[in-house]
Design brief:
Layout lengths: L2 H27 L3 E4 L5 H5 L12 E4 L3 H14 L3 E4 L15 E4 L6 E4 L4 E5 L4 H8 L4 E2 L10 H7 L6 H4 L6 E7 L5 E5 L4 H7 L8 E8 L1 E2 L3 E10 L3 H13 L5 E9 L14 E9 L7 H9 L6 E2 L2 E4 H6 L10 E9 L4 H11 L8 E6 L3 H4 L14 E9 L5 H15 L18 H9 L3 H11 L6 H5 L2
Parallel strand pairs: 2-4, 3-4
Antiparallel strand pairs: 1-2, 5-6, 6-10, 7-11, 8-9, 8-10, 12-14, 12-15, 12-16, 13-14, 13-18, 17-19, 18-19
Amino acid sequence: MPDEQRTTSTATAETATAERAIADRLRLSLRGEVIDRGHPGYDEARAVWNGLIDRRPALIARCSGTADVVEAVRAAREHRPVVSIRGGGHQVAGSGVCDDGLVIDLSRMKGVHVDPAARTARAQAGVRWGELDRETQLHGLATPGGEISATGIAGLTLGGGFGFVMRTFGLSCDSLRSLEIVTADGTVRTASRDEEPDLFWAARGGGRGIGVVTSFEYDLHALGPEVAGVLVLHPYERAEDVLRAWRDATCTAPETVTPELLLWSVPALPVIPEELHGANCVMVGAVYGGPPDDGASAALAPQRELGPPLIDLSGTLPYVTLQSANTWRFPDGERYFMKSHFMDELSDEAIRTVLDWDSRRPTPESLTVIRTLGGAVARVGPDDSAFAHRSARYNVSFDAGWQDPALDEAAIGWARSAWDALRPFSSGGTYVNFAGLGEDASELRGAVFGSHEERLEGIRAAYDPEGLFAPAARRP
């Protein structure tokens, strides 16, 4: 056998031996399931929401609770595989799975407890927003969550957390009271403003790579079960006029209103005439963060009155329906790539640039989203959490969606090119949850964390001096 082949064969045998050793260690100590490459459920267990991600971990430790997480972390310290941490699994970059390493999988940890008197909820890290909303809405309470009910609470909260009512109640991480986290030494810690305050600071917007968060305690706010909202579809031919008028309306919107604009295709809903299905359009949406009969109509009116619409679907609806309304348009297993800019203003030239690139969308599933910040988001001090973009007025995200792998290059290329074209108008920031794929991480790190990067690195080094979670910290 040639020396090169012999070396490769020896390395392969050593790798297999190491994988068996950690698998044996975990099977002795975990109550949950340990899934290796030969397990019949391996391909299902390694799959994530984004079908573009096809990684093959050596092992998946499917934890049943915090004790399992402690054992998985201790095994990782002993054997030193690459480690990734999976929560709800609905993340563009697919960072919850890694190649040839250990996935600490929390997706089966689904416990939720609501205390309606204290207006708090504690939820384990595998919970998704739809599952949390279902429990809190029994009491007419909510914490600001994502815009897709299948999104995991963990990744969204640790990255900041955009949502339909963020101008009223802040980002998801702003309602965080405390969290339980297993750090790299295998210790279970509670982090809050009073306990482990550095960990708590880092977890609110910069939480990747600081440990394994096993549960979140949130403040709840009176909202629902019905909410008032705007959803108006405008013809694409009027896109520039609508976008300018919408921009002007957002500048005077009260904090009770969170406006959003999407450049997308008309959804195939029964309430929309069939001849409009699939046509490009401008969607203007907004949600009122209070009782639907308490001044909601007047507050929402400027978002609703931007010219003659294709169709107006505005009205009141259950909060849980609002939260799940777009989930069907982002099904599991399709391919996604998203990249965003924070912006302080939307100049006419920036609007024209957005529309120029939006007109080149490669598939009907692809879209451009402009979200408004300010309000409660901006009231949090710029250095009070790791989220680094409190002063930004807008976030513009180019979201490619497609099914055919043959379109990978075209779809990703469109989003990256559009992002590059808008860069001159950006405030220099990027939202970590819409930051591309792993290969984008090093380029964007400063844009994601801004002036907080050095403090974050210091906190990570203090709690993880050997860099057990360093690969997770480097991922978007």
